[in-house]
Write the structure tokens for this entry.
Amino acid sequence: MNTSRRDFAKQASLLTLGGILCPSLARANGVYTVRAGDTLEQIARRHGVRTADLKQANRLESDLIRVGQKLTLPPLGNASVDRAASPTLRPYIVKRGDTLGRIARTHGTSVAAIKQLNNLRGDVIRIGQTLQIPASVSSGDLLAGVRRETARIRVRRDNWKRIVVHHSAIKYGNAAIYDSAHRRRNMQNGLAYHFIIGNGIDSGDGEIEIGPRWTKQLLGGHVKSYPINLTAIGICLVGNFEVDHPSKRQLDAFVQLVDWLRGEVIPGARQFAGHRDLRGEQTVCPGKNFPLAAMHARYG
Ligand SMILES: [Zn+2]
């Protein structure tokens, strides 16, 4: 993101005020608002319900959903929730030293998802407690959802010339949270990046979320330079890599995503840059702990 330190602080406070509570609020009301990149199956899995029940609860005749659509969530613990037979949930018994963050990271899911599934209000867990955990998405499948969604759109192959990597400069957040923060900063197209890669707090560790600018093939808003925004795909990893390190799954997902984009989707996007590599951008983004040199060795 192209912001000064003061803006970071402002953005951080906006995000904490506006976004962090969203997932649990959504569940408490029994309504979920569809985000870019969501599939019915994914939403059902995250909320511990069956896809069929979710469809029935919303009288959907097909699997087609649209961004912004409000879905009624079938209640948890309802007879229709078939936890035992569900291949996508498994019990986990809390051990000494566990935190929600660590459990989420180990299982490739998010703190928000675990809290929702288990109706936890706070972050306190106790040794011996049994939590329902969404089954881990294998690292090899990190791209699956993005491939599926991208197959539905017409990619402007000739438009995209380069890929720029960012960190979000804040530990929290996901595509929906940054999208509303960017809209509040008067970015009409919302989320400034095309893709967000989660860190296991507000979205899965290594989960790739697609922003509306990718599904609509719109210019980015992720650098200061307008001409670069016109032709550069923006990929943002959640985290402040001046302080923390990207997780292994985040980097796996990033490499899978960039390999695939350059190999199959937009072969013209041959240039690769960290945000701070670009001339005139006064920023440390994507942070000193992002392995930018290694990525340049891979992508030039
Ligand atoms: Zn940046």
In short: The beta strands are 31-33, 70-72, 89-93, 130-134, 162-167, 195-199, 205-210, 232-237, 271-274. The radius of gyration is 19 Å. Residues 83 and 89 are 7 Å apart (CA to CA).
